[in-house]
Amino acid sequence: MRLGSLDAVRDFVDARDVAAAVLAAAAAPALPHAVLNIGSGVGVPARTLVKELIAITGYAGAVHEDAAGSARSPDKSWQQADIARARLDLGWRPRHDLAASLTDLWEASGGKAGF
Hints:
This protein has helices spanning 15-27, 46-57, 84-90, 98-108, and strands at residues 9-10, 44-45. The chain is mainly α.
């Protein structure tokens, strides 16, 4: 497998958690803040994401970081959401950690590559 650099840190969030935040915002009688960040609140190196996927899928091949990566990644080496307002305004917090999200995604795909 050939990938770009895996040095970037990103805030990966489960789509189910995003949906729960949207529902909480829609049901809220009032929102004290006009903007709320929704994320996991945890910065995770892309390398960790790839290692988790390898462990879940059983991929046994090599991973090379020598391909062209995202044109945006070098400009933003670290992204992590501050979810404090979402916790306060919505009583919301993410419920799925990265490993559970990836495992559920893999199982929902039937355990096949290309999900």
